[in-house]
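Supplementary Methods S3. Input chains for the assembly prediction are listed below.
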Amino acid sequence: MSIIDVSDLRIWDQRNDEEIIKGLSFSVKEHSCLAIVGESGSGKSMTVKAISGIHKPWICCGGSIMFSGMDLLKTDRKKMRQVRGKQIFMIFQDGMSAFDPSCTIKSTLREILLENLDCSKDEADSIMLECMKKVLLKNPAEILKKYPHQLSGGMLQRIMISLAIALQPEIIIADEPTTSLDTITQYVVINEFLRVKEQYGTAMIFISHDLGVVRKIADYIVVMRDGKMVEAGPAEELFCNPKQEYTRYLVDTRKALGENYKKLFTVKEHV
Amino acid sequence: MYENILDVIDVKKSYRKSGVFSQKRQQILKRVSFSMAQGECLGIIGESGSGKSTLGRIMLGIERPDSGEVLLEGKNVLKAKNRRGIMSAVFQDYSASICPNQTVYQAVKEPMDVLGIYNDRNTISGLLERVGLDSSFLDRFQHELSGGEAQRVCIARAISTSPRFLLLDEAISSLDVTVQVQILDLLKQLRQQSNMSYLFITHDIQAAAYICDNLIIFNNGSVVEKTSIERISEVKDEYSQKLLNAVITV
Amino acid sequence: MNALKKIKHDPIAMVCVAVISLVVLAGILAPVIAPNDPEQVNMSLKYAGISKEYPLGNDYLGRCTLSRLIYGIRPSVLLVLAAMAVNIGTGLIIGLAAGYFKGKTDEIIMRFCDIMLSFPADVMVLAVLGVFGVGLDKILLAIVFLRWPWYARVFRTAVMKYTDKNYVQFAKSSGYSTAHIIFRDILPSVFPEVVMIASSNVSSLILSISGYSFLGLGVQAPASEWGMMLNEAKNAMLLHPGQMLPPGISIMVVCVSFAFLGDSIKDAMDSKHSIRRCKVRQSGGSVRGRAA
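Predicted structure tokens for the full assembly:
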């Protein structure tokens, strides 16, 4: 069964009639992770912004996006606000910009939990602490007192994931969440995503330009280029046997980057 | 020619924690020492917060260390005239690397003008060709370029004066993986042509393994381990091993 | 130069340049083009209307309004521009030093500016006038002396925005001289903001000077100045309201011209903004907002 069904999605810029997305169709199955990959400018972010309804006012969308029996493109802004957060949860690339810089983490999280869950302030606080412990954040009480600029990007992303655990949305949309993170932090955050997927079975849409990260987490992949879908299919199939040349190019380039590195370790194994 | 292109000797750096009169200091760099031979490509691997950016700025001579010194071909790097013509740099944020009021042509010719090297439109076209751009880019502004194109322009500008030392501070981190590989191939090619020494600062070990001869693993303001690329699997330090285990390959 | 070409093609900018140039020229050539002697009193022509000999009529002492307006350009516009140039120049040099060199230089300069800024400017001008007596030259001196710290602070912020940019770091690391970096990399980037601030403040300075003259603290009779002319016109506001129009409209026209010109210059120097505007115009779309 599909959580989200995108049919013939078309997005264009009203100001200059520029077509950004030219007829995109895909679906996200229950308990699975769909990855959208492509180079910068391929339209990945625009697609998910259309799904969650946070695109700019001069961006127009056509086609349909079915979610929980309603067409998100035809839903009014008020209803979309209710859907966002509780049912569709978004995690962005820059963890810092997701938080209000003038409020502590505690007040930001509390506001979100009170808005989306039916609970009291104390209940919200205890949910917060519990979920932060679940993502293995040390000293959650200390972290809650801090401001966003005092925490690293990786830590903020993990707090966002703990929020996802608290809200238990039907689908998490992560837009390049690990792109701006360092090696070790990226590894930790990817593992958190994997745990959420395995433990809670939440469906996910994961956007990235790094196929290495995508391979770890995705069940299905959609490859985009210049606003169009180039290829789509199960992750393993796409990596082992890409049908389209562009997909092959993306996979080969990513393999080339890590080739030297892998060789150094296999040499040791042979010695 | 001097044997080592770069010598970093006992460099220490700290910042005042708050205010002009504060006594509390935060130690960013704790006695960093290493050397680079002529023609070597050295990678410095560090996560954010390790102090590698501060180290990069001190090596470029734009920040003064609290103690210790950095020698470029035996001369102190803090004096502008010791850097001129020998050292150049490419940075991570390509959108802030080119003056927004300058065209590509003006940006690439500036270093040569400063050093008094004769150049004309053909020279600049030639440089752009070397980095894989055609002459239609000459009159474009920085905001009209994509990430990969802008970074190529920065590289063209950096090599225009044939420097012997090029510092690349996370130069490919903001680019797509496909473009990263293209730029790394370009850098390899340029190095073969001119025997430049590269100092490649990054958090991406795979990229460093693609291009570097030797690696320094950097954490918490000090050098954790030094190794050649061939022997990277033999690293002993706990942090180094943690780093290697976290690498995601396809 | 790219920016100059763009200004030439901007109709609003050209109108403003024309207006300001005319005004400045008229002020410089006042003795040549003024139809009459601005200080000649003729009580029989008191509040006379428009006539061939007196194109804008006469004021309460029968003096030619147009001639007084033209001679009034000198203190109202030309001297103000000179004072502005000194203010901007001083503020820019000091702001550049503080913003570029940072560290101790910045701290010392900024603490000095803080001390100067802690004195309320208008009150201090009045105090200076109280001590040294009234007069336009004393007002201008006081304003120049008291206002440069504000400009220094504003320009320092603008400069600091650019000193950390990668292209400045590149210039420093490549061993360019400090002078080259400041004049070739930082000043051109800061210039649009300097022009914006200068143009918006010229208007407020003109109004300030006019205000002081309106209060009788600036130019003294019988010399003419637009603010003073407004003051004289206010006395006859109910019976001869038309007297307020020549000086009032002149002040308004000059201030608006400077404001629009500053805006156009800023757009011309900001290559990104003007190119984006052109792209949207070409495709015939309406601009609803800036792109992300």
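The radius of gyration of chain B is 18 Å. Residues 177-194 of chain B form the longest helix (18 residues).
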